[in-house]
Structures are given as structure tokens and as C-alpha cells.
Amino acid sequence: MNRGWTLTSSVAGAVVVALDGTVLTVAQPDLQRELHASFAEVQWTSTAYLVVVASLLVFAGRLGDRYGQRRVFGLGMLGFGAASAGIGLAPGVGWVIGLRAVQGLFGALSQPATLGMLRIAYPPDRLARPLAVRTVAIGLAAAAGPLLGGALVTGSGWRAVFFVNVLPALVFGLPALLGPDRRPAPARTPLDLPGALLLAVTLACLVYALTARPVSGAALALAVLTAALLVRHERRTASPLLPAAVIGSRAVGAALGILIAVSASLSGTLFVATYVLQRHLGLDPFASALRSLPLAVLMVLSAALCPALLRRRGARRTTAGATVALALGVLLLSRTTSPAGLGCGFALLGAGFGTVMVAATQVIVRRAEPEVAGVAGGLQQTALNVGPAVGVAAAAALLGAGTGPALLGLACLAALALPAARALPGPAGTVPPADTRGEPVPAGGPARR
What keywords are annotated for this sequence in UniProt (predicted)? Predict the structure, then answer.
């Protein structure tokens, strides 16, 4: 698999999805006015996508492992582009909601494959740099999304933000789908369809419960029930959806928990910060975006520097230090509204999150053998979808006590990742903690496995 093409495609696939989410937020007011939609219907244009994509990511990763990451990526990109074009032509909000769910289906196919392709193309000791490039691109997309969305909506209307997905979907999807796919020989074990269904229902109910206002207790209860059934099923089936080689690693489980905690803290903090900037300080959306710009800048810089940190300090210390920086950023935002204080707080958020993204993702992806790289990518993407839903739900619940206590609670949420960081690999040459759920954890962040 050509490494240059693989890295470019992985970055493009991640950027298209990241941009789609950020520009949609800008486009929603115009969409609501033109289609005469209710506020609840506009919310469902986001919720429908989130529920579908979160519920299918792991199974989509398994499909990539079985049928080829490159081809599944190509199918996902082409389907995402086609659904985007359909939304741009939609005559009513019902069509938009339905096609956003279809977008979620194809987004679930493409996203684990962007990581699975990298794992196949690069040896484990060289994964940190392409993952850093991918994270830098996502950070730039997050920063540029509101500006691009604003320009498109102002110049051409809300439909333009969906048509912009079509060209990159064709450019990267067609070669991936039609070109040769030199992949490891796939395991011909049966697909675990019952496990896939139970996991999909669990994640769909969890994400819906957390994004509903108020939080849906019935959906949460159903998620707990199906999760228990999933655990029972996976322990008994001969070909589990979640292979022990991936979820049996203490380091991988810790990295997934860290991603959930820090992404929850970041998303919840941004939710509260938007309230502070626009309601308490009276800033307009553009001025608010300028105040939070250090977050995107430091996220990009920290992701670029993370491979060097991993070589010198290992994933354990790098992730712990970055988590502390993120928690300190949340604490600073809870105590100041001055421009300098806000800038420092957002900078710490970006530096912490960008570093954790690269370090934790590297642990998850490099520990997966190429034959199960898609499942590993699906788990990483699932963590980054569930975390923000948890964070925003926690922030909404805590806001009743005031913005200060809410941010303090979100800082504590980030701090939950610190004990988990002890399970991550240390620098090369050190002896890491024993992995009690599998073989001993290999030493070293980017060192040879």
C-alpha cells in the first residue's frame, strides 16, 4: 500500500468528516429558516448522524478488516459524498434528517478505515508521525470550519456546505474503491452479527440518551441492559466482534478511557465557555471564535510535537502531562474572564487535547495487529463520539449550579484520566506495568513491539 497515498487519503477522509460537523453548526439557522423547521427538527439533523455513526463504527472497522480497509474507505467516502449531495437537494427537513442518518452510515465505514489503512501501511515504530499529521489536519479543519461555513452560507446558502463534500469524496473514494488492495490475508471467521447488533443498540441508546434534553432515562436503562447482554454474548461466541487481542490489552483499555475522559472534558468545557462568552460577556459568535482561537493553534502545534515527546518520554508520561495541562486549562477558564486569561485557558486546552489525541491513538492503533486494525480504529472513533456526548450532558446538568462549579466538575472529569495513564507504555527501555488481562505490555512508546 503506497504510504503517501494512504496518508493523504486518511487525512482527507478525517478532514471531510470534521469539516462537515463544524460547518453544519453554522448552517443550521439558515436551514431552519428556509425549510421552516422547528428547533427540535434542527437538533435532529445533528442527533441522527451522531446516533448512527457511533453505533456502527466498530462493526464497520470489522468489515474493513475482513474485506479490505482501502475498499471500505472508498465505499464510505463515495456514500458520504452522495448523501451530502442529496442533503443539498433536499426539499424538506425530514429528508435532511434521513439523509444525515445515511451520512452517518457511510461516515462510520470511512473513519475506522482511515486509521486501519495507516496501521497496515506503516510499521508500529513509525505510526506516531502519520497520526500526528492526521490530528494536525483535524485541528486545522476544526479551526477553519466555522469560517468556511460562514463564507459558504453567506455567499451561496446552507446547501453549499453539503455540496462541498462531493468533490473530495469522488477524488479519494473512487481510486480507493477501484484500485488494488494489497492487504493481509483476511480471517475467514464468521462476522459476529448478534454482537454487532447488541453493540449498535447499546451505543445508539447511550448517545441518544446523552444528547436528548433532558437526558433519557429509558434509553440509558436500555443501553445498560444491552451492554450486559453484549458482554455475555462476547464471552460465549467463538468469533467475537471485539477480539481479545484488542480489548484484552490493559493499555488499550486505558487509552480508550483516557480519550473518553479528555474529549468529554473538552466538549463540556466548550459548551460552558460558549455560554460564558456569549451570554455573560455579550460577545457575538465571531468575537467568541476569536477568543477561543488559541485552542486550535495549540492543538495543531502540540500534535506536531507529540511524536518527539513520545520518543523521549513515552506514552505514559506524555499523556499524563497533557491531561494535567488540559485540566489546568479548564480550571483557569473557571476563574477568569479576562482576554489574557481566556487565551491561556484555551491554549492549555488545545495543547493538552492535541497531545492526548496523538499519544492515546498511537497506543490503540500500534498494539493492534494489521488483521484487526479496523476494530481498533472503530473503538478509537467510538470513544471520540461517546466522550463529547458525555461531556455536554455533564455540562448541561452542572450549569444549574453556575458556570464556575460546572467547569470545576469538568476539570475533575479530565483528571479521571490520570490513573489510567499509568497503564500506558513508558519510554524505551523502561519496564511498564504488567498487563493482567493478556501478555506483558511491551516497553516503549514508539519502540519496537
Answer: Antibiotic resistance, Membrane, Transmembrane, Transmembrane helix
- The predicted pLDDT at position 429 comes to 40
C-alpha grid cell, residue 350: 488545545
Are 254 and 219 part of one and the same domain? no
What is the grid cell recorded at 206?
447511550
Identify the three-state secondary structure at position 79: helix
Residues 6+ apart with CB under 8 A from 73: 9, 13, 64, 109, 110, 113, 114, 117, 173, 176
Neighbour count for residue 19 (Cβ, 10 Å): 22
What CATH number has the domain bearing residue 411? 1.20.1250.20
Q: Which residue has the higher pLDDT, 166 or 243?
A: 166
Task: Give the pLDDT mean for 230-247.
Answer: 86
Cell of 161: 456546505
Query: What's the domain count of the chain?
Result: 3
Helix ranges (H only) for 164-216 are 166-178, 193-211
Task: Of 371, 232, 261, give the one whose Cα is nearest residue 327.
Answer: 261
SS3 content of the chain, % helix, strand, coil (to 5): 80, 0, 20
Show Cβ contacts of residue 221 under 8 Å, excluding neighbours closer than 6 positions: none
Same domain, 292 and 398: yes
Q: Residue 226's domain spans which residues? A: 192-240
What torsion do the CA atoms of 376, 256, 298, 314 make, to the nearest 10 degrees?
A: -90
Residues 298 and 234 reside in one and the same domain: no
